[in-house]
């Protein structure tokens, strides 16, 4: 079995259908800046998915088992082009252009998981296992 940590986050978009359409296009296949994607991988993010419901974004972020959230988010914020990316996407988000990804995306608490046997702290991520 392979173990990893999972973090779930939310963010609010501006309630403008045209802005939401542009935001989705910015995140469409092949449109995310390669430096941003590589930076996430470099800090230990294994996989990330973002879902949209109205103006609410929901992110699932899977990381290496030894992932340190605070350290990784600090490192990510200092990587080349990261602040430029955050400024670009902020025009669609209910946030300021100077906010970091950590400040925009709010960690949310898991309250139920099928067959869960251990309690976890939301800031430490939820330890998950992939059965292969």
Notes on the protein architecture:
The structure is a single chain. The chain is 32% helix and 27% strand. The radius of gyration is 15 Å and the shape is globular. It is built from 5 helices and 5 strands; from the N terminus they run E-H-H-E-E-H-H-H-E-E. It has a single domain (5-130), classed as Alpha-Beta Plaits (2-Layer Sandwich). The protein is an alpha+beta fold. Strands 1, 2, 3, 4 and 5 form a 5-stranded antiparallel beta sheet that branches.
Provide key terms for this protein:
132 residues
Task: Spell out the blueprint of helices and strands.
Layout: E1 2-12, H1 17-26, H2 34-42, E2 45-53, E3 56-63, H3 69-78, H4 82-90, H5 101-104, E4 106-107, E5 126-130
Antiparallel strand pairs: 1-3, 1-4, 1-5, 2-3
């Amino acid at each position: 079995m392979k173990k990893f940590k999972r973090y779930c986050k939310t963010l609010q978009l501006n309630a403008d259908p045209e802005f939401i359409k542009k935001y989705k296009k910015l995140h469409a296949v092949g449109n995310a800046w390669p430096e941003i994607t590589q930076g996430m991988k470099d800090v230990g993010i294994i996989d990330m998915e973002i879902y949209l419901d109205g103006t609410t974004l929901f992110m699932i972020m899977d990381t290496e088992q030894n992932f340190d959230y605070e350290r990784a988010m600090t490192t990510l914020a200092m990587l080349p082009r990261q602040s430029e990316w955050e400024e670009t996407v902020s025009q669609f988000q209910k946030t300021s252009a100077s906010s970091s990804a950590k400040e925009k995306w709010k960690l949310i608490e898991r309250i139920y998981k099928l067959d869960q046997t251990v309690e976890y702290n939301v800031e430490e991520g939820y330890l998950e296992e992939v059965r292969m």
